[in-house]
Amino acid sequence: MPNSNVQARLQSRDLEAIDNVLYEAKQEELTARSIFNVKTDIPAGAEVYGYDVLERSGAAKIIANGADDLPLVDVDVKRYYAQIYTIALGFRYSLQDLRQSQMTGQSVDANKAATVRRGIAEKENKLAWVGDSKYNIQGIATAAGIQVEAVGNNTAGTSTKWAQKSSEEVIEELRKLRKRITILPGYGDAALVLALPPDQYEELNRRYSDFDSRTLLKVIQDNQWFAQIKRVADLKGVGLNKSDSLLIFHSEPETAELLLPMDITRLQEEWKYPNWKVPCEERFGGAVVRAPHAILRADGI
User: Fold this and answer.
1) What is the CA 290 to chain-centroid distance, rounded?
2) Which pTM does this prediction carry?
3) What is the CATH classification number for the domain harbouring 190?
4) Does residue 155 sit within a domain?
């Protein structure tokens, strides 16, 4: 902390202005948070979070009178672990910045705090979707055990990309991909989410046909295939050979959650002439995926 010779110092009104920005609602910019449940009931000091996934085997059958070949059910519980790390970023104010704010009676400019919040939010969102193999952080699109499929070529056999496919081909492709989840036991009427990179999301604004003025988006909505259709920039280049990918998934907590032991927090400000440094951090563990079979990634779109 500064000594009595410092003529300008961060005051309570300045810190309140900063905190108001740091803790502002983040639903619009954090796509992952707007879709998945955020699990916060873990101590901020935890380094690892363990969770169990239950797998059942065995089925009932008809047996003859007096037979002793009774089928048995078996339950296998596997434990998985998620690493928890700190996402950190900070900002500084000069002594002159503070003198000027006190001269005018206004709190210090909170734009730097907003930039810090944005930076941490972007890092968190990217980790939630694609993870980080270096730090063993799992993302929704890269989690072990999810369904992965390379989409087929267009009718001409020249490209797998949506921009080179007809509207009918795109719709039929989505129908088949969605089916990969809806045919699973218990998912026949599940509320699924479709997540697309920006370019492919905009392709949904294309007219369906010369005889049907609806957009592709409207056709999909009319079919009621998905509960949500989201634009996710982090899916660009996430597939094999850095191809663009889409995701179709069940988003309830039994399928996946985001691990957030500590939300963005402003730490004690530090003084070193001629600046105040304000560190901020968050504790985050990526995605906890409990039912990877309910997530499908399709590459090459």
Assistant:
1) 15
2) 0.86
3) 3.30.2320.10
4) yes
